[in-house]
Amino acid sequence: SSSFTTTYKPRKQQQTNDKSHQQDTHENKQPQAPSSLSSSAAAAAGAAAAAAAGPRDKRRDGRGHFQLRPPYLKVGAVSRAAGSAYVEMEGVKVICGVYGPTSNARAQYSDKGTLSCSLEFAPFARGARRTRKDEQEERAISMILEEAITVSIQLDKFPKAVVKAWVVVLEGGLGYLGAAISCVSLALADAGIELYGLVAAASVASLGKTMIVDPSCSETEDPRYGGSMLLACIPSLQQITYVSQKGSMESKAAQDMVALCSEACSILHDLMKECLVADALQKGLQISSDNKKNVEDTL
């Protein structure tokens, strides 16, 4: 996987340089208790993190306990779509195309538009033949995408219209849902759909008494692997749009997971903003330093 900087330059030419840059970038950015939380929640998250793992502790893939898998983010991946995005990380590859807004003739008049999401697994996404269970999961995930993303869209800007987002999971490893949420939000921004803010998603899991950010498939095989949480939010507004929990945990552990997820989302959100700004510059848009700051603040 390449880092987000490969979005700005030809991937083949920059692959070697990006790997070294990606390592430096993500070693320096590690989730901590976010300042937006209450002081007690932030202190609890920080204390739990410090008690659970020392700064030199490493995971199976070499990451620290609070490091994300280095993502590769790209917009404009589908030429015929109004907007599109591609998100890749270890074990996960997701692509999204956005079409519209288009008139929804069959629907009753509404002063607000709607978002329609459709997610599909590629035949090779999981290394096994598609089953009816996959189709049921696709429908369920499509509804989750709509729930997580809809609140970030200024729906009153296109009444009685629909925006359609088509998502294809090319590699469905652990974390594909969070990647899909972030991918749809990037594609909507690329399409010029007016948003309240970008939606980023991240997950946290427990290994015994230790919490890890963005768990990978290999870590689920650890006998200590316990409860996990996926959280999507709009970091610029400090608003949670979706959260799900698997496994049982104490309320304090759940609060610590929310804190770590929120900070991980903030880090991913920064990468998403840089991806969009760099793409605009690459397309030849003249953005002054002041305007560039305004764009980043808006996102």
Can you put this structure into words, describing what you see?
The chain has 299 residues and is α+β, with helices and mostly antiparallel strands. The protein contains 6 helices and 9 strands, in the order ααββββαβαββββαα. Helix 2 packs across helix 5 (251-282) and helix 3 crosses helix 4. The model is unreliable at 1-56 (pLDDT under 50).
Which segments are poorly predicted (pLDDT under 50) over 5 or more consecutive residues?
1-56
Characterize the quaternary organization of these chains: single chain
Strand content of the residues, in percent?
15-25%
- Give average pLDDT, whole number: 79
Give me the number of helical elements. 6
How many runs of DSSP E, i.e. beta strands? 9
Give the overall silhouette. globular
| Biggest beta sheet attributes | 5 strands, mixed
What is the CA-based Rg, rounded? 19 Å
List the defining traits of the structure above:
299 residues; alpha+beta; five-stranded mixed β-sheet; four-stranded antiparallel β-sheet; 6 helices; 9 strands; globular; disordered N terminus
Quick recap of the structure?
The protein is of the alpha+beta class and 299 residues long.
Write the layout of secondary structure elements.
Layout: H1 11-28, H2 39-52, E1 72-75, E2 83-89, E3 92-103, E4 114-121, H3 132-150, E5 161-172, H4 176-190, E6 200-207, E7 210-213, E8 225-234, E9 239-246, H5 251-282, H6 289-298
Parallel strand pairs: 4-5
Antiparallel strand pairs: 1-2, 2-3, 3-5, 6-7, 6-8, 8-9
Helix pairs in contact: 2-5, 3-4
